Amino acid sequence: MEIWINPACSKCRSALTLLDAEGADYTVRRYLEDVPSPDEIRAVLDRLGLEPWDITRTQEAAAKELGLKDWPKDAASRDRWVEALAAHPKLIQRPIITAEDGTAVVARSEEAVRDALSR
User: Fold this and answer.
1) How far is CA 106 from CA 48, 65, 109, in A?
2) Which of 2, 3, 45, 75 holds its CA 20 to 30 A away from the CA of 31?
3) 9 has catalytic annotation
4) Whole-structure pTM over 0.85, yes or no?
């Protein structure tokens, strides 16, 4: 199990606290420092069953500068979104937990963290 976190994020800290309380075996990836490649982002999206715009923090300054709200959300634009996430990792929703069964969850709630633990 791996968790992508921003240590400044309260949701990330809460997820780590719960993982520790449950005795989970996991690896921390500080994705702002260890930036995922476009291929890693695509792999996590496949595990999540989501599209890149589904995990994009659209209220971030970089999103506004890029004009993401006006970008098409379609298959032809998918790679453009992935490249934007790789170039601006702060835009990636957090925390993301990759579960043991090959799936992943955006773990913004205790329920989502517990869901990842049960997989």
Assistant:
1) 8, 25, 8
2) 75
3) yes
4) yes
